[in-house]
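Worked problem 6 (solution included).
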Amino acid sequence: MALVGLVRVSTSRQETARQHDDLDPICVKVFEEKISGKLAVADRPGLQAALAYLRPEDMLVVQEADRLGRNLLEGLLVLNDLFEQGIQVKVLHGIAAGEHTERSLILDLALALAEDRRRDIARKTRDGLAAAAKRGRKGGRPRVVDADKRRAILARHTEGQSLREIACGVGVSLAVVHGEVKAARDAGVANSGTASLD
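Solution. The predicted structure is:
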């Protein structure tokens, strides 16, 4: 029986070191993904790689049950798939800590709590942004372009360059260029001509 680890965080800005500290010493291989746990199993490359590597009687090891998924349904689908293949699950911490060979109330509860926690965080974030907006402060991520880059983006757009060409020329992502052009157009500043989105 091989112990195979799965490390997951929701964004590329989050650290995985603490999970690796727990899993690396006991697992023959550890798969990592920086992706939302609420996505479908098919959209999670790290989980897919772990599932392909695991064999019957192996054990998938996670630090906490919510590493399997922050969405109750997707977490249950992962568990059902594993147990049907004869693969066990080991949870190191949390209310579901222990080794599991089949679904149980405690595992289901751990996944349900993870989903509830995710919803609570999202609600608090929305409430905080709404409260800040009422006070005249705008929340969200800081802008990645300064006034000079914004002028360069809009000038290149006026010249008829495609958004992709602008992104390469200015050194920002396609999404940033699209956002700046859209904001300028919405504000009535951009030239009436539109550039190709490719």
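Discussion: Helices lie at 17-23, 45-53, 72-84, 105-134, 147-158, 163-170, 174-186.
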